[in-house]
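ok trying this again, last paste got cut off
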Amino acid sequence: MSIKKSSVVLAWLFLVCGILFTTYTYGWHGKCYLDSDQSSEMVLADFLNEIDGGLVTDSWYYSTEIRVIYVHLLYRILLPLFPSWHAVRVVSVMVICIILANSIVYFGRKAGLKTGAVWLAGIYMYPFSGDYAYLILYGQSYVTYFIFCFIILGLILQWLKESDKNRKIILFVILALVSFLSGLNGIRQLLVLFFPLLLASIVLLWGKLDTFPMKAFFRTKEFLLALVVMSTTACGSCGFLYNAYFLQKYCHSYDIRHIPLGEIFVSELLDYIG
């Protein structure tokens, strides 16, 4: 076996072992690894299955944001299949790891990483810190935002590289839909992906203003990147506005819109400083 093939095999082995290790550790040691946030998502999934049946409900008080595309949808599928909630959680950890790994590999391949994309995905499969394990792999509180980030970034890169006009249109429609769905979960996706990405694309575009004639400028990769990022940000913002101004009237939730963004960032910074 050549060195290149060996590297590919080792990368996939590293990835699969990470998924199995994380699933095993949660299955064997994670029965008590459950807090009110995680258990409430299980209760919500069971409630939607047994009583309401929709994606969201007006018979539930959402503690922070109304999350539409979230892990409770996976719990809804698994709850009728397994007798215990711990079994549902164990299987959900494995499924989430597989989905997350595929999203990272997809992004990495579109970014030109090749085998490096598999190694990158493999690293993310291991609980390398307590916070990461709690928020992403085991607790799954923020894993949906992670997955959306990698998928959207991968779609943007694929759209930029695509030369066929029809495929480009299809990719743009998919990108717009995925961005809108990500925005339905609230403002977090805008804060962690769309706004920073929009700012970065504008900075890159600004650096090219004086280097190309006006006609050539509109065909540069920097202009196309800024254009598609602005479009996806608009779609994500539409999803957020639908959540904030329509679902907020239909559902019961703490209205996070009344918290100033500066207050969020400053309080987090002060917490880290101590």
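PB: full thing came through this time. The CA atoms of residues 75 and 89 lie 8 Å apart.
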